[in-house]
Design brief:
- This protein is mostly helical and 769 residues long.
- It contains 25 helices and seven strands.
- It has a seven-stranded mixed sheet with strand order 2-3-4-1-5-6-7, sandwiched between helices.
- Strand 2 and strand 3 form a beta hairpin.
- It comes from Streptomyces phaeofaciens.
Length: 769
């Protein structure tokens, strides 16, 4: 296939990966200038390559430009607070892990609906946990118990037994005051989502004139409205905010209504309570209707906003919450707080609903996977979808488990803090205690799995030692250096075991969660009390599991926040943890509006606008060069171009997770069909990777009518085994970094840049490699 090489100037657009980079390092020049963009993300050139109007000063070679986007995902240590919303981010990932299938089918719509319902359950779970801490443990149990209130003097004004009580000592008024905490949490989530919605979702992609795509297999990433989820996020934010406020209102109102239903209670308050419960039920149905009805609009830029829904639904629920608080604060002589609020039913219903939704999601995903999508694609490898299409349900299960662990951990820790001896309070709901008790069992399963993976990695290391010796002709060589190279290669393969780890963890979590739910509902007592009368060994094991699980949840929560903060402050830690975070925040918020914002909704339009305006103004050609996560952004930006502009783009990727991670976990958008279509549409694509790289890997597109083979043979790492004239000192193992150090990188880059020069023929044949 011949492609025209007409055009003016040529451009090389560099996109860095995880961990960020400076324009000076990317352009290999200490003098750089920003030609477009702001402090968050911008395009830079060397000073010598930019004139007063930003045009190229040198026309005899492609002009390099660096797109720096690191400030979209990194910042100061307070960014670690986003990690508290990790369950929301994980369930949003499940939405995009749908198996490849034809768009618009009922199964595809049902898949998205189930994920949105799972996301809604997580919002309710988070607010319910805040209600458990503030309303039940603090205002109801501790403030209503003389011994506990005396231990915490700041609760004295709430207790009816301390200083003869006061106006706030009535149980309903205590609950109304404590309800301000979960209400403030819901407001904070709304504020964060609204603020990031203005900063990210408001960035409009290129509004291009539609053109017919060249052939089958094109992904939704090429649709004009894919990176513009402003309307959907606003609608979901309204629904989830209303769900949080309704949860607070239900926690307060049901306690007061239960008191009013007792024989001899005031008839007027009873009628008012029943009316409020009916209004809460109607509000819940309205929220579910909004979540079920509203999906994404991708085929066009949807600039409209449902102002009536976005404003009125949260406002209506806020008014209903205020009425409920006023109803609960009404004086009820003789009302005393005792026992627990009905949290067992609440958390049990949420856990049961999440289990049903995940199982239904697994059934739909299995059906979609068996359907096979668009069929086989020539030159593309198939059968690599994570967990045979069940990656989305497995990740959704992990999101629910994370939400449960975080909710249970906070509740257990607050209960232990308020009631140090464990004799004053009834503690958190029984289900949360059962969930804490299964944590040691889950950790034991994971330790066994890690031991098995360690054993297989050790065996693979032994096999790789022989391969290293053959490749470097190092026999006998240096055993220590051979071992380091072999170990790096073996450790890099652990990335490919990710589906096994996720699958085992998800299955174990589902089974143990079902056991905890059955234990809580079957006995109505904690694991220790449920084993009363059993042998001493059984009772000791139950007691140990309950105590150890409670402490592990709290410790894990603290470590989680600590590691998250370190990941944002320490560059080395960010390179290790950052890829997982950047994968999670790459995708738009389609299932949960309170998830961390999608940086690609700014980065992809940036790159697309730059490439489109360049080709439109100069009629030139360009090569976009992406490392690691930058290669995914580069591919996504190329998909957003018109097919006629896409044909003027060459792509160089290195250390790229585009198939190894994205292709396996997101087959509907980066599967073999989508990658083959991109390969067919662009001018040329070359991919570099190393066997020691735990992130990057091959694209696995072979040579056929789509063009040349994409993957370069694996680069040597290290470049030389021992000391040579070219490398007089021992070379380091580079792994995922510094691909530019390999001579093959310069060769492949030069080949792509040569295609951009008008005087060089741009023939593309299947024999090219």
């Amino acid at each position: 296939m011949e492609r025209s090489s007409q055009g003016g100037e040529a451009l090389e657009l560099l996109v860095h990966g995880v961990g960020g980079a400076t324009p000076e390092k990317m352009l290999n020049d200490p003098r750089t200038v920003r030609i477009t963009g702001d402090d968050t993300a911008a395009v830079y050139r060397r000073v010598d390559d930019a004139g007063p109007d930003g045009a190229a000063a040198h026309h005899d070679r492609p002009v390099p430009e660096a797109y720096v986007w690191s400030n979209l995902t990194s910042g100061n240590g307070t960014r670690a607070l986003w990690l508290l919303l990790l369950p929301f981010m994980v369930v949003n990932l499940a939405h995009w892990m749908r198996p490849a299938a034809r768009e618009g089918t009922r199964a595809v719509r049902l898949y998205g609906l189930l994920v949105r319902l799972a996301g809604l359950s997580l919002t309710v779970l988070l607010v319910a946990a805040a209600c458990e801490v503030a309303l039940d443990l603090t205002a109801w149990q501790c403030a209503g118990t003389r011994a506990c209130a005396e231990r915490h003097s700041w609760l004295g004004f709430l207790s009816p037994d301390v200083s003869d009580g006061g106006w706030w000592s009535a149980p309903g008024r205590r609950l109304a005051l404590a309800a301000l905490v979960p209400t403030a949490l819901t407001g904070l989530l709304w504020y964060l989502s609204h603020r990031t919605w203005r900063a990210y979702e408001s960035q409009e992609p290129l509004d291009r004139t539609p053109e017919p795509e060249n052939g089958p297999g094109h992904t939704a990433l090429s649709r004009p409205g894919f990176w513009y989820g402003r309307r959907l996020v606003a609608r979901l934010r309204a629904a989830h905010t209303a769900a949080g406020l309704l949860t607070v209102a239900a926690a307060v109102g049901t306690a007061a209504a239960r008191e009013d239903r007792r024989p001899g209670g005031p008839v007027l308050l009873d009628l008012l309570g029943r009316s409020l419960e009916g209004a809460l039920a109607c509000g819940a149905l309205a929220v579910i209707w909004v979540v079920c009805r509203r999906g994404r609009s991708e085929r066009r830029l949807d600039r409209r906003l449902d102002a009536h829904l976005v404003r009125r639904l949260p406002l209506a629920t806020l008014v209903l919450l205020a009425l409920t608080l006023g109803y609960a604060g009404w004086a009820r002589p003789g009302w005393q707080s005792g026992g627990r609020l009905p949290g067992d039913t609440t958390f049990g219903t949420i856990a049961l609903a999440q289990g049903v939704v995940v199982l239904a999601l697994a059934a739909v995903a299995h059906t979609l996977h068996r359907a096979g999508g668009d069929g086989p694609v020539p030159g593309a490898s198939g059968g690599r979808s994570a967990l045979r299409g069940l990656g989305g349900p497995a990740v959704a299960m992990l999101a629910c488990a994370l939400g449960g662990v975080m909710s249970g951990g906070v509740s257990q820790r607050v209960s232990d803090w308020l009631d140090g001896t464990g004799t004053f309070l009834d503690g958190p709901p029984v289900l949360l205690t059962w969930q804490a008790s299964v944590i040691p069992v889950l950790l034991a399963v994971l330790l066994i799995l890690c031991a098995l993976l360690g054993r297989s990695t050790w065996r693979l290391t032994r096999a790789e030692r022989e391969a290293v010796a053959r490749e470097y002709d190092a026999d006998p060589g240096d055993p220590a250096r051979t071992g380091r190279i072999a170990r790096a290669r073996a450790m890099a393969t652990l990335t490919d075991r990710g589906p096994l780890v996720v699958g085992v963890t998800s299955a174990a979590t589902l089974l143990l969660g079902a056991g905890a739910l059955a234990g809580a509902f079957g006995t109505g007592r904690t694991p220790v009390r449920a084993t009363e009368g059993a042998p001493a060994f059984v009772q000791g094991a139950a007691q140990t599991a309950q105590a150890l699980g409670s402490w592990l949840i709290g410790l894990g929560f603290i470590l989680f926040v600590t590691w998250g903060r370190r990941a944002y402050k320490d560059a080395a830690a960010r390179r290790t943890i950052g890829i997982l975070w950047d994968v999670g925040t790459f995708w738009p918020r389609a299932a949960h509006p309170f998830a961390p914002p999608c940086y690609a909704e700014r980065a992809v339009p940036d790159l697309t606008w730059r490439m489109a305006t360049w080709t439109r103004a100069t009629r030139g050609r360009l090569v976009i060069s992406g490392h690691s996560q930058g290669s995914v952004l580069a591919a996504a930006a190329a998909w957003q171009l018109k097919p006629s502009d896409r044909a003027r783009v060459a792509l160089l990727t290195y250390g790229s997770p585009i198939e190894r991670l994205y292709g396996r976990w997101f087959p509907a958008h980066f599967g073999p069909a989508a990658l083959a279509a991109l390969h067919r549409d662009i001018d040329c694509w070359r991919n570099l990777y190393r066997l020691t790289d735990p992130i990057g890997g091959p694209v696995r597109l072979s040579g056929d009518d789509c063009g040349p083979v994409v993957d370069h043979p694996p680069l040597a790492d290290p470049l030389a085994y021992g000391r040579t004239e070219a490398h007089p000192l021992p070379g380091p193992l580079l792994g995922h970094s510094d691909y530019q150090a390999d001579p093959a990188f310069a060769d492949e880059r030069e080949r792509l840049l040569a295609r951009l020069r008008p005087e060089v023929p741009a023939a593309r044949t299947g024999a090219e490699s």
